[in-house]
Amino acid sequence: QRLTATADGNGRGQRPTHPNGRMRRSERLTAKAGFHPLGQGNRPFALNLCSMNPHEPRRYRGAIASEGLVGFEVSLFETDLMVLAERDLRTEARFAARNARRQIESHAAMHPGWVEARTPVPVGEAASPIVKAMSEAARVAGTGPMAAVAGAIAEEVARALVEHSAEVIVENGGDIFMITGRERLVAIGAGRSRWQGKLALAVPAGERAICTSSGTVGHSVSAGRADAVVMAAPTGALADALATATGNRVGGPADVRTALEWAAAHEGVEQVVVICGEAMAVWGTMDLRAVGE
């Protein structure tokens, strides 16, 4: 079902905001706009494998907490994760992050063009699972493989931790992979737009990625000017790459609807939110709720 909202709150179908949909602070997650840097020249082992500037403070993480789960941070070189699980799994999360990075760095060392590409690059059958996932997502989205790196690492870590915790949420620079048994609310960060801090996506129980891209927040590698593109999809790599590609299509408020329609046409996409200035367009079946002050 398609939902569309404009600056004055009018839209077609169901209104995307719900004034009574207040969330408790303990349930709030944050989808903050991230970015997806490419490799630097012929230095594949200097890859920035997180989705944000590794030195940028994660101020939004003060709002990341979820009822019944323990929160902890894990840093490994440029990778900086916030993890929510049933118990502290710091050691296991660090091991999983190291394994994910090793797969990507090993492939990058042998194929530096794969890292630097801004368009899809095919890989062989011998490539590691995370490299294959990133390359396939790039093929679907029409981006370079590194546009999928943050979401791919978030999923890799989450799937490793689910062996130790029935519920896991991993956030990597604003790109989230969730394995949960109940509905969770994800607050949407939208830069300087009128929607900043006012909306949250009600994400149902299950396994999925919620990834965000922006051309106005952070040090983003984006050809667009969207304040936020939020994408829900089955895999972290796909959600991340499609969020980036959709954001690239937004040069201004007039482009939000066409960008939304392009994203929604892809198989597997569950939800899309595109915000630019005063304009917002929404597609999908998840509720978009108002955040209580």
* Shape label: globular
Order of helices and strands: EEEEEHHHHEEEEEEHHEEE
Structural class: alpha+beta
Q: What spatial order of strands do you see in the largest sheet? A: 2-1-13-12-11-10-7-6-5-4
Radius of gyration: 18 Å
Q: How many helices in DSSP terms?
A: 6
Query: What's the story with the biggest beta sheet?
Result: 10 strands, antiparallel
| Average residue-wise pLDDT | 81
Distance from N terminus to C terminus (CA atoms, Å) equals 29 Å
Features:
globular, 293 residues, four-stranded mixed β-sheet, 25% helix, 14 strands, 6 helices, single chain, ten-stranded antiparallel β-sheet, alpha+beta
Strand and helix layout:
Elements: E1 2-5, E2 11-12, E3 28-31, E4 70-76, E5 79-85, H1 90-110, H2 112-116, H3 129-141, H4 149-161, E6 168-172, E7 175-180, E8 184-188, E9 199-203, E10 206-213, E11 228-233, H5 236-248, H6 256-264, E12 271-276, E13 279-284, E14 288-290
Parallel strand pairs: 3-8
Antiparallel strand pairs: 1-2, 1-13, 4-5, 5-6, 6-7, 7-10, 8-9, 9-14, 10-11, 11-12, 12-13
Helix pairs in contact: 1-4, 3-5, 4-5, 5-6
Plain-language structure description:
By secondary structure, this protein is α+β, with helices and mostly antiparallel strands. 25% of the residues lie in helices and 25% in strands. The chain contains six helices and 14 strands. It has helices at residues 90-110, 112-116, 129-141, 149-161, 236-248, 256-264; strands at residues 2-5, 11-12, 28-31, 70-76, 79-85, 168-172, 175-180, 184-188, 199-203, 206-213, 228-233, 271-276, 279-284, 288-290. The strands form two sheets. The chain has a ten-stranded antiparallel beta sheet. It has a four-stranded mixed beta sheet with strand order 3-8-9-14, with no helix packed on it.
